[in-house]
Structure formats: structure tokens, C-alpha cells
Specification:
heterodimer; A: five-stranded antiparallel sheet; globular; B: Immunoglobulin-like; Maltoporin, Chain A; disordered N terminus
Chain lengths: ~450, ~800
């Protein structure tokens, strides 16, 4: 009921903005044209001390959808944009209609501060509802994403540094390394923290004795039923004989943490036998519920290259589903920097391979388990998607910002149905900087 | 602590027994000009001995430790004719004399040279140097850091109140590139408990601040500058003591004393200090808020609650001075300890409770120096020190606290755990022990009056061990060690030409550094894993050189130029990394090099004989190459997020500073200085050959424009005859600056204008001085660092006591 009401509101907002802006759309109509009169916000990361580090802060700028699709239009976020309050790269998310940006400041005096911005075009972003700070629960550099629940909830997660059970003052014999995990829900409508839980999440006793532990949690996703959250993990192993961090180790099967929703209680662990990498993603989504009701999850640091794993509607890994991106793309050592599901089991993956940082884009078909590198995008050696955050999905289309570090680029609009690649607005860059999202 | 008291007791008994045997003769007196005004700064010397004194601001002097009999003393001073006075003192006599000096017509000659204070001599040596005399300031409730902060070109950035962490910025260079010395010895020999935070101005003779170019006798790899603190060096018997109490339960006490037996030259110097403050000053504004269970902010105005600071220390030196075989031969012990609560990290948005550090240091030292050693004109100096330092960082409290010092309660009604496990990261009780040995030796040879050769060598070795009691024994046994040894040799040639109108100092420094690292590793032996050690050594040699020169272009106008190719050797962590701080090693790291240049003028003039102006203007350039910075990997693909330090950055700093002193008669002193600089990003092209936007842009988080002003007014014979009242007014201005590359208002500090006032009253007997000070009188929000508020309005009362005859 609430969801219906919300959708109504969204449509109203869309109509309202259409009336206000009076944009016309001359592009040929795709199957699902999406929302014609929405704002398209691009974000760019300033360099701190070395090119591409993104540590100088984040700036945003919004244009009409028409302008975003027009290669004649130039957007210079670094010259004309609005500075989002975050000492280092902001962790941005957007409402589905693009009318609101959500940010959690990363580190600094306001680290952990959640802010909503109303998108009003150009550099006009107005903070609304004051601030809410989650740092007491989740630290000043929390990892978070929004759920696909009609822009109602954001989930932030954190794990404290793992410590051995026999660390003083406890003492005794070694059994495990564990940190304390926090799972926190943020209510976007009320702008407040609606719940949190803190617990230690044990692995099997044997795994723990070997020194394996969860080092980070990231990229939670809500299952189709809406009763479980599946949270990605980043694993670490300690060398038990020296209590130091192990550099090279035989990785366990990919693990996710499953907790009840909305209570956030009863954490359990599920383990894949297909993937052996982490499934934490980086600064963006890493798991999606597809049209078939299953969850699809990408792996990182996977010894045999990134895989896409399937978690079925019983919230268990489906080990009969094997989708190796190395095999599908015919290259070695694929690493998924970020990816985004569009619709009808089609998704787009930003990846590197062969141990370089150079980024590529591929379309993947989750049902057919195929992947195709998208042609028509200039793949520059300095194109690095490692900090990439924002994909704008609009109908059948996904918008991505493609700028090599320190060089100009464009918005590219990829159509999941027609496979068309449209070159959109020109993104004016500055040395050392790069664009990290379209929202 | 008990050891320190024993020493004190020993010192007191010892000096008392020596005293009883001596013949307590002394001469004291007051110097006047022909108008009957008292004359400060007049040298009073004994004809055939090195005993002497300088008149204080009331013209008063005293010479102690005289043997009975006839002596000839003479008085001389700038602008006055030398006057010889024969005196006859009987055993146990305390003689008092009055001397009237005639104004001198001649401008040049011996008198002028003798009248030059040490301060002036250093300032005219050609270096870009400020000399801070502490004598007057030590009567007020001021800290050493306050004095530094009021000096042109120096910005002291402190993370709170008394005792909190300090960073010094000299002409835009800061952090590791500014080295601090105590009597020419690196301050790291002493540790936190004996630092500029704890040493009161009353124990300091003067502070020399060298900017960019550092003389050969201060041998260290100081890239951006050096602050050299000279501890008290009285040569006459005296005892001074003071105690100050004020806002935030701040108590500061110190004493210093000197005794010299005139007969055999036996000398005892002892001093001690004690500082305590709750630092519970009020904080408010946008950074001071409690976070409610639902995440919303509640802005509060409240007092700091975990910020107490205590430091105690003392020094005793025994030996002989001005004897045949040594001008100074002293063996000493310096002991100090401190306790420091830490209220917050880099920003005050998250208050801590229960995080604190303690430190202790015990330093043994030996000093020897002799002029005309074996050969006339050869001066030998030697300082040897060995110190044992111990430091503990304690942080084990697991909960979040709000600004009322209460546990933060979560939505579930239970206290919220800190996200790192303790207040500032992982729980720790880290014991760090350092053994530091430092030797400094110098040879100066005066070829003749105009040519001198200086050779100086410093050897410094530090051996560091760490034990974190919150880590398992196994973890502790796998913590590596780093031993660092530095050898720095410097040779200088000093020349005076054209009747001392041109002074030149050419120097070269040779730096050698050796670091040994041991990382424990796992070895496999007979199928079993055992602990092994992986050791490596790194050696670095570098040469730097420079010059300092001054030229009197006009009789009262001096051109001062100095330049140096300055060096900073990479530190042990930068080379060998630190697994705990996520730094991996980079053996090939090169030293940081900076080309530093200062050009300035110093001058003065007299107007209507009553208005005296002195000024100093200087421009500077610091061109740093191979700046050592930690590479930031945007990808962070490794489960262990570690990055090495690299020679990456280029930074340039340029700016200017000016000082103006104005004296009207003997009553009014006005002192004004300002400093403005640009520290810019100096890397021009990115890998694609495009010019960086930041190129030539001001680096964020640099207070680039500051102004300080001090006005002092002296009233004589106020209330009582022979008494003196001194009124002080001081303001400090810091212009606003951005703290991030993104120039948005949220990342900009406010413009600051902080004012202090004070009054001192000197009783006619000259023994008591009572001072009252009000700091930050308008209770403004003061910030040295972004989001860290400094104390607001505060009041202090101080009592000083001095005896010059015993």
C-alpha cells in the first residue's frame, strides 16, 4: 500500500517536473523509454595527491535527460559542479527517478553523516531534512547501499578489526579471529536510523582455526520476498603461527552473510563452491535480484577470475549455476570493478583483466551465461573504473560515465534490448580527476 | 618520581654545604644615566675575571661569588661611555653601589660591539633567524608555544589546550621537515615529557628559530627549519621560582637556581617544573554535537572531559665552570614524565574517554667546552647524552561517548560499541621503549679576528622496542624492530670583511644514515614452523651545502641573504614500512631535497631621540623535490591494504614576512609582525602532459596569512617608589583558509582575531613580581586545526620570586 502511494507520488513529481522544465524528447523511442523528464546527475572525483586517487572530494552536476544524451552538450562538473560534503570520495546513491541524491560522507569531521539532496538542475542541490549521522554504529567510513525497495531504505554495514579470541585480557588458547559486525537500516523517508544490530559472525570452527575471518561486509541486497538481506563479504586470513596477516592463501568458497529483514537478526553464513573470491564489491552495488527472482552476485579477487554467482530464492548459493567471466569473455583474470543489472536478466559489467587497471564494459546475459565486450566505447589505457559508483538505469537503458583519468570522455547510453551504444554528453575532465557516476 | 625527589634533596643539601664554606661576597647596584633614569642592558664586568652581569630593566645588577679584597669592575653599554669603578669588599660583605654613566658621543668602537646583545649578534649573522628572548615573557602566565606562535613566520598548530599535540609550521614547511633542538641536541633525545609543551619560558634563556637555512652547529636533516631552545645559562648565583594558577584548574610552577663557588669554580645548576591542567574548557559550535540514538544531531555547549595534562621534570648539572681546564664541564641528569589524556582525534566531532598516553625520560648528559684549547683561537665543545625513554599509549574503553561524557545509548537501549574496538581504533596498551645516544662535538678555530673555521659532528642512534599488551604473546613476538643511526658532519667557514660590514658563512653538511630492520618471519625447519628473523640494512649518504651572508649597505641597513640545499633523510617507517600502519617497505626511497632561499633587510632608525624603530623584512622560497608521500592506490585490491612511501611530490612555498619594533622612550614598546605565504602544488604536468589544475595553487589546510601585535607599556614608581608596572596587550590574527581542495564553505576555517591582556607588578625590592593575565578576552572560538577548538577566555595569576644574592 505504502509502495503504491509512493509510486503515485513519484509519477506526480515526474509530471510536475515535466511541466516545469518543458523538455521535449527528439530521440527515437526505445521499447521502454524510461522517464523522459528526469534529471541526470553526473559525479566526478577530484584527485587528492596522486592522479586518480579520488581523495580530493566529489562534485556533482545535473542536466536534463536530453542534454545527457546529446554529445554536443559539454558538462564540466569540476568547474561548474556542486561540492558534496565529504573529505574523501562521497558514497553517493540516487532515488530511482533521479530527483534525490543520498550521500554518506566518507571519513573526516563529518564521516558517517547521511544527507539527502534535492536535485534541481545544474549545480543546485539542496540539502533536505538536516543530517543524520551513523558513525556511532558504523564508523566514519561506513560501506552502504540503498535497497531496491522504492527508495525507502539504505543499509550500512561495518566490521571492527578482527582480533584473536585469546587477546588480552582474555588469554587462553587460540580458536578464532573475529570482529564485531554492525548492520544498520536508514529510513530515507523519515531521515533517521530505524534499526541496527551488532554481533560477531562465526565461520565454521575449522575455518576459524585456520585463521580465516570476515574482514569487511559490503553491498547488501534484499531478496525477492523481502525477508532476508544478503550481505557480501571480504575475507582475510591470519597466519596462525605468527598472528600476522597472510599475504597469499588458499581461498575458501565465496561467502555471504544472511540476516532476517527487517529485524536484522540471526546472521548465518552461506558458502559457494563455484566462486572463491570476495563478494564485497567496491563503493557500489554488487548483488541484484533479477527478473527470475534469483540474486546474482559478482566476485572480486577470485583466483580463477570473477564469477557471477546465483543465490536462489531459498537464500542459498545455487552451485549448479556456473558463470565464469574468464570463460565467457575469453580472457584471463577478469576482475569486476562494478556492475549493474538492467532488466530481463541483462546486466552490464565494468571490468579489468590480465592484471592491468584498464577498464572495459561488457554486457552479460545472466540466463544464457554469456558476456560480450561492448564495442563503440573508446577503451583508453587510463580508463579506470575501480572507484566507479553510479549507473543510471532508465527503462531499457543504462547510463555510464566513461572518462580516462585526466582526459575528457562522454556519457554512454547502452540499450539492453537493442544493444545500441549512444554517445551522450561530453564530460570535461581535469588532470588527475575522473568521473565516477551517473545518477 | 621518587628518584627525582631524591635528586632534588641531594641538590639542596649539597649546595647548602658548599655554600657554608664559601666567602659570601657580592656587589650589587643600579646603573643610571645623567638624567637619573635607570639603564637596562648595561654590561657589568669584573676586570680580571669572567664574572659579570647585565642590568635588568630597572638598571639593577648583582655579581655574586666574589672573593674578599679589591676588585675593579667596569660598566659599558650601547651609547654610553665605559666607566671603571674600583671596589673593596670585606669577607661576607654585600656591597651596594650606584653608578652613573655618561652618554657617549662616538658611535663606533669597542663599546658598541660590547653593547650588542647576543640576540642582535645572531640576527645579524646572515641567517633568516628569529631570536625569542624569554626574560620578560617568563613573568607572565605564558607557555613556550605561545611565544613561538607570536613570532613572524611561525605557526604553532595545537590540537587543543596545554599539553596537546603540536605541529610547527615555519614559512610553510611543517611536520618532519621542522626539527627541534634543546641546546643543540635533537629533542627526540628527551621525548614528549620534556618538550616545548612542558618546558616553561622561565627555564629558557632564548629560542632561536632558523628558517630554511640552518647553521652548521645544528647538525640534523632539518629540511624546512630548526627551533633551537637554549636553556638558562646564568653565570651568577641566583634562585628564581614562580607559580601560576588559573582557569581550567591550570597550575604551573617552576624553579631554577645556580650556584658557583668563586674559589674553585664548582658549579651547580638545578631547575624543575610542574604543569597541570584539566583543560576542561568550553567548546561549542557546529562540531560539538551529541548524536541521538536515531542519528540526529543535538548541538551542545559543554566542557571537555578527557583532556587533563600533567608534566613534571627537573634537571641538575654539577661540575666546574671558568676554570683553567674548562670553560664549562658539567655532568647532569634530566628526568621528566607526563600524563596526557586525549579528548579526540583529528576532529572534535567524536569525543573520546579513557584514551591517554604517559611518557618518561631519563637523560644523562655531559658537557664540555673550552676556548683557546691548547692553541689560542681554538674552541672545543662536546656534548654527550644517553637517554632512556618510555612511552605508553593506553586505549581500551570499548564504548561510544557523547559530549557530556556519558555512554551513547543505541536504539536498542544498550550502549553502542566503538566501531574500531576502542576510542581511536583497535584496543591498545602499547609500550614503546627507546634508547637514544647522542654525541655532538664541535671545533671552532679563529684564524684571526676575521676568519673562523667551524667543524661539527653529530652522532645519533635510536633503538626502539614495542610491546602492545593488548596483543597476544605470539603477535608480540612477531613485531619487528628498527634501529636508526645518523652521522652528520658539517664544516663551515665564517668570514668578516670590510670592518665587519660583510659577514659570510659558507657551510657544507654530510649526512649519513643507517637503518637496520628486523622483521620476524616464519621458517620451516624439519617440517615445523619456527620463528626466524629477517634483517636488512639501508644506508644513505647525501651532501647539502649553503651560505648565509649579511652586508651593511648603509650604517643602519643590513642586507641578509641565505640559501641552502637542505636535506631530509627518509624515516625508518618510510623506508621499512610499518605493517600496523599499512605501510610496506620501499628500500629505494631517496632523501627529500629542498632548495631554500631567504632574502631580507634588517634596519633601524632613531627619530627625535625618543622614537626608535627597528624593522626586518624578508622574502623566502622553498622548492622541495622528491617529497616523500605515501602512494594512495585507488584500487585497494589486496586484502591487506598497504602502500609504500614514494618520492612523488613537488611542493613550493614562497612568501614574505615583516617585523616592526617601535620603542618610545623607556615606556612604550610596540611589536608588530606579519607573515604571508603560498605553499603550492608544484607538479605541473599529469602523465598525459596536461597541466594540473592544482599547479601553483595553494595547498589546502595551510594558515597562510597571520598577524601578531604586542604592545607593552611600563610605568615606574606606580603606587610605591621603585616599583614597576608593566601592561601588556597582544593580538593574533589568522586569516581563513580552506581545508580541502574542494573550495566550499563547509571546508573553510573562520577568520580569527584573538586578544590577550596582562599586567605585571614588580615590587620595589625587585624580588617579587606578580602578574595577572587574561587570554582570549572576548571568548572567541579559536582554531589552529580544522574542527578543533582551542581554549576560550581564561584568567591566570602568577607569582615570581627571584633572589640574586646568596
Amino acid at each position: 500500500m505504502k509502495k503504491l502511494l509512493l509510486n503515485g507520488l513519484l509519477i506526480g513529481a515526474m509530471l510536475g517536473s515535466a511541466a516545469l522544465t518543458g523538455c521535449s524528447n527528439d530521440d527515437p523511442m526505445p521499447d521502454n523509454p524510461g522517464n523522459a523528464d528526469r534529471w541526470v546527475t553526473v559525479s566526478g572525483a577530484l584527485m587528492g595527491s596522486t592522479p586518480g586517487d579520488g581523495n580530493g572530494g566529489t562534485m556533482v552536476y545535473a542536466v536534463s535527460k536530453d542534454d545527457a544524451r546529446n554529445p554536443e552538450v559539454s558538462i564540466d562538473v569540476f568547474e561548474n559542479g556542486y561540492g558534496v560534503r565529504s573529505n574523501r570520495t562521497a558514497r553517493l546513491q540516487a532515488s530511482e527517478d533521479g530527483s534525490t541524491l543520498f550521500n554518506i560522507a566518507y571519513t573526516g569531521d563529518n564521516g558517517g553523516e547521511f544527507t539527502k539532496y534535492a536535485v534541481n538542475g545544474g549545480r543546485n542541490f539542496n540539502p533536505i531534512d538536516g543530517g543524520v549521522n551513523i558513525s556511532q554504529y558504523a564508523g566514519t567510513s561506513p560501506r552502504w547501499v540503498k535497497l531496491f525497495d522504492g527508495d525507502r531504505t539504505g543499509i550500512a554495514v561495518n566490521v571492527t578489526l578482527p582480533v584473536p579470541n585469546n587477546a588480552p585480557p582474555a588469554g587462553g588458547t587460540f580458536a578464532y579471529y573475529r570482529g564485531v559486525a554492525t548492520v544498520l537500516a536508514l529510513d530515507f523517508q523519515e531521515t533517521l536510523i530505524s534499526g541496527y544490530r551488532q554481533y560477531e559472525i562465526p565461520l565454521t570452527a575449522e575455518e576459524e582455526l585456520q585463521g580465516h575471518t570476515i574482514f569487511r561486509l559490503d553491498a547488501p541486497v534484499l531478496n525477492k520476498l523481502g525477508n532476508k538481506l544478503i550481505i557480501g563479504t571480504w575475507m582475510r586470513k591470519y597466519d596462525v603461527a605468527s598472528n600476522t596477516v597472510a599475504n597469499n592463501f588458499e581461498r575458501l568458497g565465496t561467502k555471504s552473510v544472511v540476516v532476517d529483514y527487517p529485524s536484522l537478526e540471526n546472521p548465518t553464513i552461506i558458502t559457494s563452491s563455484v566462486g572463491h573470491g570476495d563478494c564485497s564489491g567496491y563503493r557500489s552495488f554488487n548483488s541484484f535480484v533479477a527478473s527470475d527472482g534469483n540474486i546474482y552476485q559478482a566476485t572480486q579477487r577470485d583466483p580463477k577470475g570473477s564469477h557471477i554467482l546465483r543465490i536462489n530464492q531459498n537464500n542459498e548459493y545455487d552451485n549448479s549455476y556456473i558463470f565464469s567471466l574468464d570463460a565467457a569473455l575469453g580472457v584471463k583474470g577478469v576482475y569486476v570493478d562494478a556492475w549493474r543489472y538492467v532488466n530481463d536478466n541483462i546486466a552490464y559489467v565494468l571490468y579489468t583483466h590480465g592484471g592491468t587497471d584498464q577498464g572495459y564494459v561488457a554486457q552479460v546475459d545472466l540466463s544464457a551465461r554469456t558476456a560480450t565486450k561492448v564495442e563503440g566505447i573508446p577503451y583508453d589505457a587510463d580508463l579506470d573504473f575501480s572507484q566507479y559508483q553510479g549507473f543510471m538505469v532508465d527503462g531499457d537503458e543504462v547510463y555510464i560515465a566513461v572518462t580516462p583519468t585526466g582526459k575528457n570522455g562522454n556519457i554512454y547510453i547502452l540499450n539492453s534490448k537493442t544493444n545500441e551504444v549512444i554517445k551522450g554528453a561530453t564530460l570535461i575532465n581535469k588532470p588527475g580527476n575522473h568521473y565516477i557516476g551517473v545518477f | 618520581m621518587s628518584r627525582y625527589f631524591l635528586l632534588l634533596l641531594f641538590m639542596i643539601c649539597f649546595s647548602a654545604s658548599v655554600k657554608a664554606q664559601g666567602q659570601k661576597c657580592s656587589i650589587s647596584g643600579v646603573a643610571y644615566n645623567s638624567q637619573g633614569e635607570t639603564l637596562p642592558g648595561i654590561m657589568v664586568l669584573l676586570q680580571d675575571s669572567s664574572l659579570g652581569a647585565v642590568t635588568d630593566m630597572n638598571g639593577f645588577f648583582s655579581i655574586n661569588g666574589l672573593s674578599a679584597g679589591t676588585h675593579s669592575i667596569y660598566l659599558s653599554g650601547l651609547g654610553y661611555q665605559r666607566k671603571d669603578v674600583p671596589v673593596k669588599v670585606a669577607p661576607q660583605d654585600k656591597m651596594e653601589i650606584i653608578v652613573i654613566l655618561e652618554e657617549s658621543e662616538e658611535e663606533l668602537g669597542e663599546v658598541v660591539v660590547e653593547g650588542k646583545t647576543f640576540e642582535k649578534e645572531i640576527e645579524e649573522s646572515g641567517f633568516a633567524v628569529n631570536v625569542i628572548e624569554t626574560k620578560k615573557a617568563s613573568l607572565q602566565s605564558l607557555q613556550t608555544n605561545d611565544l613561538l606562535n607570536r613570532t613572524a613566520g611561525i605557526r604553532v598548530r595545537q590540537n587543543g589546550g596545554l599539553g596537546s599535540a603540536v605541529n610547527y609550521n615555519l614559512n610553510g614547511m611543517s611536520g618532519n621537515s621542522v626539527r627541534i633542538f634543546i641546546d643543540g641536541i635533537p629533542i627526540s633525545t628527551y621525548g614528549a615529557s620534556f618538550s616545548l609543551n612542558s618546558i616553561p619560558p622561565a627555564l629558557i634563556e632564548r629560542i632561536e628559530v632558523y628558517k630554511g637555512v640552518i647553521p652548521a652547529h645544528l647538525s640534523d636533516d632539518a629540511l624546512g627549519g630548526a627551533i633551537n631552545v637554549i636553556l638558562k645559562q646564568d653565570m651568577s648565583n641566583n634562585l628564581t621560582a614562580s607559580v601560576s594558577y588559573g582557569s581550567f584548574n591550570t597550575l604551573q610552577a617552576n624553579f631554577s637556581s645556580m650556584y658557583r663557588n668563586e674559589k674553585n669554580g664548582f658549579t651547580v645548576r638545578a631547575s624543575g617544573f610542574h604543569n597541570y591542567s584539566d583543560n576542561n574548557y568550553e567548546v561549542w559550535g557546529k562540531f560539538v554535537r551529541n548524536i541521538l540514538p536515531n542519528g540526529r544531531y543535538e548541538y551542545v555547549r559543554t566542557r571537555r572531559f578527557n583532556d587533563a595534562y600533567r608534566s613534571t621534570g627537573g634537571q641538575i648539572q654539577l661540575g666546574f665552570t671558568n676554570v683553567k681546564w674548562a670553560d664549562q664541564f658539567l655532568i647532569g641528569f634530566n628526568g621528566s614524565n607526563d600524563y596526557n589524556e586525549i579528548q579526540h582525534g583529528n576532529y572534535m566531532t567524536i569525543p573520546y574517554k579513557g584514551r591517554f598516553t604517559t611518557s618518561q625520560s631519563n637523560v644523562l648528559n655531559l658537557n664540555y667546552n673550552k676556548k683557546d684549547f691548547m692553541v689560542k683561537g681554538l674552541e672545543v665543545t662536546f656534548t654527550g647524552m644517553h637517554s632512556d625513554r618510555h612511552e605508553v599509549v593506553n586505549d581500551t574503553v570499548r564504548w561510544n561517548y557523547n559530549w557530556f561524557g556519558e555512554k551513547s545509548i543505541g536504539l536498542n537501549g544498550t550502549p553502542i560499541l566503538r566501531s574500531g574496538g576502542a576510542q581511536q581504533g583497535a584496543p591498545t596498551i602499547n609500550h614503546i621503549d627507546r634508547k637514544v645516544t647522542t654525541f655532538r662535538s664541535g671545533l671552532n678555530y679563529d684564524i684571526n679576528d676575521n676568519h673562523r673555521v667551524v667543524f661539527n659532528h653529530m652522532y645519533y642512534t635510536i633503538d626502539r622496542r614495542e610491546q602492545d599488551l593488548m596483543k597476544t604473546e605470539l603477535e608480540r613476538s612477531f613485531i619487528g624492530t628498527r634501529d636508526l643511526t645518523k652521522n652528520i658532519s658539517a664544516v663551515a667557514y665564517e668570514m668578516n670583511a670590510f670592518n665587519s660590514r660583510l659577514k659570510t658563512n659558507l657551510f657544507t653538511k654530510f649526512y649519513q644514515q643507517q637503518i637496520e630492520r628486523m622483521n620476524p618471519i616464519l621458517l620451516r625447519q624439519n617440517g615445523e614452523q619456527i620463528r626466524g628473523e629477517d634483517t636488512a640494512k639501508s644506508k644513505r649518504n647525501t651532501t647539502g651545502y649553503g651560505l648565509a651572508t649579511s652586508l651593511n649597505v648603509l650604517p643602519k641597513l643590513m642586507l641578509i641573504v641565505s640559501a641552502e640545499k637542505a636535506v631530509r633523510m627518509p624515516s625508518e617507517n618510510e623506508i621499512f614500512g610499518s605493517p600496523g600502519d599499512n605501510i610496506i617497505e620501499n628500500i629505494s626511497l631517496r632523501p627529500e631535497i629542498s632548495n631554500n632561499l631567504n632574502v631580507g633587510f634588517r634596519g633601524g632608525f632613531l627619530y627625535n631621540s625618543d622614537h626608535k624603530f627597528d624593522f626586518y623584512v624578508s622574502g623566502f622560497l622553498r622548492d622541495t623535490k622528491d617529497k616523500i608521500v605515501q602512494r594512495i592506490n585507488p584500487r585497494m585490491n589486496d586484502a591487506i591494504q598497504t602502500d609504500p612511501f614514494e618520492n612523488l611530490g613537488l611542493v613550493k612555498s614562497k612568501g614574505f614576512e615583516a617585523e616592526l619594533k617601535y620603542e618610545m622612550g623607556r615606556n612604550l614598546n610596540v611589536f608588530l609582525n606579519f607573515s604571508r605565504f603560498n605553499t603550492v602544488f608544484n607538479q605541473q604536468y599529469d602523465p598525459n602532459g596536461k597541466e594540473y589544475t592544482y599547479y601553483n595553487q595553494q595547498l589546502p589546510n595551510e594558515p597562510f596569512f597571520t598577524v601578531n601585535n604586542m604592545v607593552q607599556y611600563t610605568l615606574n614608581d606606580f603606587i610605591q617608589t621603585q616599583s614597576t608596572v608593566i601592561l601588556n596587550y597582544n593580538f593574533g590574527f589568522v586569516d581563513r583558509f580552506y581545508t580541502s581542495w574542494m573550495e566550499i564553505d563547509e571546508f573553510r576555517t573562520p577568520r580569527q582575531f584573538i586578544q590577550d591582556i596582562g599586567i605585571s607588578y614588580m615590587f620595589p625590592n625587585k624580588k617579587f613580581v606578580i602578574s595577572a593575565d587574561a587570554r582570549n578576552i572576548f571568548d572567541r572560538q579559536a582554531y589552529d586545526n580544522f574542527a578543533v577548538q582551542k581554549p576560550g577566555r581564561a584568567f591566570y595569576l602568577k607569582l615570581n620570586y627571584t633572589i640574586n644574592n646568596f
